[in-house]
Design a protein that fits this description.
Largest sheet: 8 strands, mixed
Strand content: 15-25%
Oligomer: single chain
Shape: globular
Structural class: alpha/beta
Order of helices and strands: EEEEEEHHEHEHEHEHEHHEHEHHHEHEE
Radius of gyration: 22 Å
Distance between the termini: 26 Å
Length: 409
């Protein structure tokens, strides 16, 4: 018996209208309308009974109505532990300098009840309703807050389990080496089940990039964790650290498990230099994440994709003490990346969308992903003449399916 049949969808990257057959939470077939459903018995075709019906195959049916079908959207870099989503309006007092923003968030989080499990769960639910099926979130770990943020994110993720998948990064927002017991707390977070160890400006914040990377990569090697390092440092200092991270990645055979977030120093470089850096990253098996925020430099998605460097997109903070802005909708952020990158053609806008889908999946190591037979049935149905049109319009999500289960929108 089939679980679900999505009828008459235009799957991104394919031509024509097709039916998607889902069984046991995975895509079991992608068929031209009228083809026999795999395993459903001789002559059985997708039913034609109308939306949300159950036809002769026994499957639940959804009619996509010739709309675009996108794979599950991915928010590859956010900080849900900091959010005040759904709470009262809080005027921003952060300023614009990195150390000042870090200190402001640390001082005021207790006043505002941050981290707040309910608000995080609400944000995650809104993300899921907008078609996001995977999230990587960076959670503050420091001597003041301890592991309470990690615990709160775990609890919030449990509330929305089944709607989207949450991966947590233990993140030393106030510094790794300059803050008391932070290293011990980071290791404790890994023991609790956190999958990724974070870092932050090894030179600009901690002032000792070699020692910083010794700790981060040492913990990754010891616990089999992945690595995701925030790198805001620009110029030659930032590029030098990119090289250090690439050297560590290769030396420890961590290809496919190490990423740099933001990478402003790369985004500052002209295209020929970015191409050279992209070759370095590809040779080390590394990935990049960008958030395309404000006027922050953005590594070129075109350069990275051409070099084979996986690149993902995230929202960074959403409605928090760092910024009053933010949306739960990844198509909004894709549109922001496209505008910031000067993308106008269909192909260029779809390149921006790549960073929130296939590019992000590769960067996160999601080997089973996409609109293909055998992959988990994570997809969303949107209005639009094309995928690029859907991005520009921030098109409504008509249906969202996670692991074969339609979400209530």
């Amino acid at each position: 018996m089939n679980d679900l049949v999505l009828r008459s969808g235009r799957l991104w990257g394919r031509t024509g209208t097709e039916d998607v057959v889902v069984r046991d939470g995975r895509i079991a077939g992608i068929l031209t309308p009228g083809d026999r459903i795999p395993g459903a018995g001789p002559g059985t075709t997708p039913p034609a009974t109308g939306e949300s019906g159950a036809g002769e195959s026994g499957a639940r049916e959804i009619d996509a109505g010739d709309r675009i079908v996108l794979p599950g959207l991915i928010n590859a870099h956010c900080h849900i532990d900091k959010t005040i989503w759904g709470g009262p309006w809080v005027p921003n007092t952060a300023g614009t300098e990195l150390h000042g923003m870090i200190g402001n968030g640390r001082r005021r989080r207790a006043e505002l009840g941050i981290p707040h499990e309910g608000r995080m769960a609400g944000l995650l639910a809104d993300m899921a309703a907008a078609g996001t099926t995977h999230v990587r979130t960076h959670t503050d770990v420091d001597p003041d807050i301890g592991l309470s943020g990690v615990e709160a994110v775990m609890a919030a993720a449990e509330r929305v389990a089944g709607s989207l998948t949450v991966e947590q990064v233990a993140f030393p927002q106030s510094g790794l080496l300059v803050e008391g017991d932070t290293v011990e707390l980071m290791e404790a977070a890994l023991r609790m089940g956190v999958q990724t160890i974070g870092g932050l400006d090894p030179a600009g914040v901690d002032g000792d990039p070699v020692a910083h990377l010794d700790v981060v990569f040492g913990l990754a090697e010891k616990h089999g964790a992945k690595v995701d390092i925030h790198l805001h440092d620009g110029g030659t200092l930032g590029l030098w650290q990119v090289g250090l991270i690439a050297e560590r990645t290769k030396a420890l055979s961590l290809q496919g498990r190490v990423a740099i977030s933001h990478a402003f120093a790369i985004g500052e470089e002209p295209r020929p230099q970015q191409e050279r850096i992209a070759d370095l990253l590809a040779g080390a098996g590394m990935a990049l994440f960008t958030c395309a925020g404000f006027s922050d430099p953005i590594p070129s998605p075109a350069v990275m994709r051409a070099a084979g460097v996986p690149m993902g997109l995230g929202t960074d903070g959403i409605r928090d003490l760092w910024s009053p802005y933010g949306s739960a909708d990844m198509l909004v952020r894709v549109g922001q990346l496209a505008v910031r990158s000067g993308f106008k053609s269909e192909e260029e806008i779809e390149l921006a969308l790549w960073t929130a889908t296939e590019g992000a999946a590769a960067a996160l190591g999601l080997e089973e992903y996409g609109l293909r037979v055998g992959a988990p049935a994570d997809f969303t149905v949107v209005d639009g003449a094309s995928a690029a049109h859907a991005v520009v319009e921030h098109a409504p999500r008509r249906h969202v399916v996670k692991a074969g289960l339609p979400l209530a929108l």
